[in-house]
Amino acid sequence: MVEIRSVGVMGAGQMGSGIAHVCALAGLDVGLYDVARDRLEACLNVVSANLSRQVASKKITEEQRREALSRIKLLTDLEGFSDTDLVIEAVTENETIKRKALSQLCPELKPEAMIGTNTSSVSITRLAASTDRPERFIGIHFMNPVPVMQLVELVRGIATEDETFEAARNFVSKLGKTVAVSEDFPAFMVNRILLPMINEAIYTLYEGVGTVDSIDTAMRLGANHPMGPLQLADFIGLDTCLSIMQVLHDGLADSKYRPCPLLVKYVEAGWLGRKTQRGFYDYR
Ligand code: CAA
User: Which residues hold NAD(+) (predicted)?
Assistant: First the structure.
């Protein structure tokens, strides 16, 4: 059985920071890669602040926080992954960008290294085919915020070997998370169900059925969701929501997955939710 001792995270965004956080806290050595040094530093600050929240609520000790932070190495060069057991790709949710990142990554890895992708919607088989190791490639899909959410979806591509799957399953258990196994269909399970709900909430707003506040209140108090769907859309990122709806629409060829024109318009305006300070809510 392959044991994962060191993990690389490619992409220092929202998901990259959460993945680095939970891996370091589980005692793994973490290399966090991004092209931009300032993004890496900002990401490490996010990890540090989130670890502090966990110290404050007594989920971890100050000592664990310090040790976790010391295990994260910032990398602006992919050569830093030359001895890494598993690299998880967590770049922007766009197939072209992901393929490019994977093709740059492969030549830097040792032959036996595994690659995981944190894609939330794109075909694992197709992404695997753009690497030199489809048998050691797997979907490892974390939920946001990663340090809090219990679930990880594991998705095999057509060529993923059993050994890769078992190593990934052990890795997820080591992080203290629960696996749900999904077949390789567009957006897998969580997003196949969650994103059409969010898209429908945006249609509900678009058609004037309710206001932002009333739609979110309806779902928080009427369906016991921790966040309203529009607040959640802002939290995920409206660009990511749109990408996932497009993958569902293209991949399943059913008009029920048509992205709401209002979602398209917001993304075109650069209103991407919390990360740009403006989405369905104004965070400025
Ligand atoms: N890191 C560490 N801890 C965090 C954290 C983070 N990033 N975010 C929140 N927390 C902790 C807080 O410190 C707090 O801890 P204590 O209870 O121990 O004090 C706890 O989580 C709850 O946080 P808050 O009190 O700040 O706020 P809340 O009660 O409103 O919970 C939430 C926040 C956990 C995000 C909750 O609103 C929630 O579960 N929302 C829904 C999230 C969701 O649906 N995620 C899935 C998105 S879909 C996805 O990820 C898939 C995809 O591909 C798009």
Answer: 11-16, 34, 93, 98, 120, 144, 275
